[in-house]
């Protein structure tokens, strides 16, 4: 299984914001912290905002901040919101499936069970669990930020 960059960046944005919960972060700051495209992060932040994980404040002194407590953000829920699908193999999509053995193959059921187990494990963890006691250490790993 491989997560899309959108899902990866979604988790990274939330980790960054959780490490510095007392302040707003601009998308440029987030992009600089991870060395990734600001353009891509704008779309990630839109997804996180539409799903209620982050709050976006517009304007010159605006930015992004967590919309919920870290203990209320489940990792599995974030991935479900950020991933376009979890179709591990072609036969998961009835409309586009061309696999000739799909009607008699037992692989799809096993992979579906594995996918559900994967998500069930992620559902047990919150953003608070990921940040844990290392919040200060995590914040220090990022580039220093200037406060306006």
Descriptive report:
The chain is mainly α and 148 residues long. It is 49% helix and 5% strand. It has seven helices and two strands; from the N terminus they run αααββαααα. The chain has helices at residues 5-19, 27-34, 38-50, 75-82, 107-123, 127-131, 135-141; strands at residues 54-57, 63-66. Strands 1-2 form a two-stranded antiparallel ribbon. Helix 1 (5-19) crosses helix 3 (38-50) and helix 4 (75-82) crosses helix 5. The protein is elongated. The N and C termini lie far apart (41 Å). The relative contact order is 0.18. The model has no long low-confidence stretch (mean pLDDT 89).
Count of alpha/pi helices? 7
Mean pLDDT: 89
Helix/strand order = HHHEEHHHH
Percent of residues in helices comes to 40-55%
- Name the shape in a single word: elongated
Instruction: Characterize the biggest β-sheet.
Output: 2 strands, antiparallel
Low-confidence stretches: none
What structural category arises from helix and sheet content?
Answer: mainly alpha
- Termini, distance in Å? 41 Å
Radius of gyration: 18 Å
Spatial sequence of strands, sheet with the most strands:
1-2
Total number of β-strand segments? 2
- Beta strand %: 5-15%
